[in-house]
Amino acid sequence: MQFLTLVVKVAISKLSRPFSLVSDTVEIDYSRSEQACGFQVVEAPELKGHTTNRYYKGFSILKKVDARFIMDEPSFDWITGVLRSDNEILIGCPPDNYESIKCLEAFTDEIDEGTFKALDEDRNRYESDLTRKKMWYLLRFPTPPDAEGHQSFKLSVKEINLPEDEDDADTRLPMEYFPISTSHVSVEQTRNDYAVFSVVRLDKRPGKRGNIGKPKMGAAARQIFERGYNERAEANEQATQQDLPKPYPNLPATLEEAFRLGRYE
Fold it and tell me: How far apart are CA 257 and CA 66, in angstroms?
């Protein structure tokens, strides 16, 4: 596989505490959902409320995630979504350049020695600086005036969050995490993982429907681990039915045991 090395310059802004980190500020353009620094932000007309039969207007935010960072360190909180103000959202996620951080040796024959040394030095700085562990993006939404000329635009998450024993239910963005497998005539099947955040607009009147259930939520690392275990368990079961050797003979007997051990085999 060939790699293209791009060098780009971005504007950065210093955030106030509690997030004293450097982030990229992304100005959201509703008319170009794909032009948001790797995020796809779309207007969502029907976001389910958590306990009522109300559906809220708001936004869904899609971000491709490199799951290899999560699998390397599943105990770390790699994906974070926080409501910062009436029109700003802070999202943290793994970097996009896993290969040049974790697999730099693969670049040896592809790039010149000077570039390799520079990347190696930067990799060492990344590994020793916790503030660089994941990328931070401040998504800023435009606040157009309403029909009467008032600035009523307001984002919220508590209407769609699970409030049970959560101290941050008013600010934490609900998130779903899932893998997608795709194929193309020129490459083998590939897997990409995505995180989807949701946020509602309080300046838009919600609609109503019948009773609904609570949205599914869970840690990204746990979902990846469980899916990986289930895929291996299914492969073992199929091999047993065909009287073939198990491809994963050391797989723990149960998912709970695998979680306790922190490994598949």
Answer: 26
Are the CB atoms for 56 and 160 separated by under 8 Å? yes
| Distance in angstroms (rounded) separating the CA atoms of residues 73 and 81 | 19
For the stretch 29-62, pLDDT in tens is: 877 877 667 888 888 888 888 766 788 889 999 9
Q: What gap in Å lies between CA 69 and CA 65, rounded to an integer?
A: 9
Cβ contact 60:44 at 8 Å: yes
- Kindly list the domain boundaries of the chain, sorted by start residue: 12-94+134-215, 219-265
pLDDT, one tens digit per residue, over 177-203 is 888 777 666 666 667 767 777 778 887
Supply the mean pLDDT for the chain. 76
Q: Which helix (H) or strand (E) holds 98?
A: helix 98-102
Say which residues have a Cβ less than 8 Å from residue 56's Cβ, sequence separation at least 6: 46, 47, 48, 49, 159, 160, 200, 201, 204, 206
Residue type present at position 76: F
Q: List, in sequence order, every beta strand (DSSP E) within the chain.
A: 12-14, 22-27, 39-48, 54-65, 80-85, 88-93, 135-140, 155-156, 175-184, 187-201, 207-208
Q: What share of the chain is helix, strand, coil (3-state, %, to 5)?
A: 25, 30, 45
